[in-house]
Write a structure and sequence with these properties.
By secondary structure, the protein is α+β, with helices and mostly antiparallel strands. The protein is built from four helices and six strands, in the order αββββαββαα.
Length: 122
């Protein structure tokens, strides 16, 4: 995937906002004010994303793909960094993005959680 495809996929989810809370080159995608993906726009060596992940799945992905490493500057137990130009297929990257969105939504109050999870089923 390229960064334009990541952007389009992220904003396809319900109630997603995007902002630059850290600096002018780190695009953050949030749902109800909670970050689920960080996309550095100035990465010259490699294009990557940082996203939330279940700890067991995070380890599994790191073992399966060279593209996946512990999240740089994040809680490495709960965040993965995925190189967009490596061995992880686009379908798996999309699945990881969707999982990240879902993990954030699952921690929300019941009324928000039910509404947002329902949109994922459609």
């Amino acid at each position: 995937m390229n960064i334009e495809e990541v952007h389009a996929y992220c904003i396809s989810f319900a109630e997603v906002t995007e902002e630059f809370p850290f600096d002018e080159t780190s695009l953050v995608f949030k749902v109800n004010g909670k970050m689920f993906l960080l996309l550095p726009l100035n990465a010259e060596d490699e294009r990557f994303i940082l996203l939330k992940c279940d700890p067991e799945l995070a380890v599994e992905q790191r073992e399966c793909y060279e593209a996946v490493r512990p999240g740089y500057h994040m809680n490495k137990k709960h965040w993965n960094m995925i190189n967009l130009e490596s061995d992880m297929p686009d379908a798996e990257i999309k699945r990881a993005i969707r999982h990240s969105y879902q993990k954030v939504v699952e921690k929300m109050p019941a009324k928000d959680r039910q509404r947002l999870l329902k949109t994922l089923e459609q």
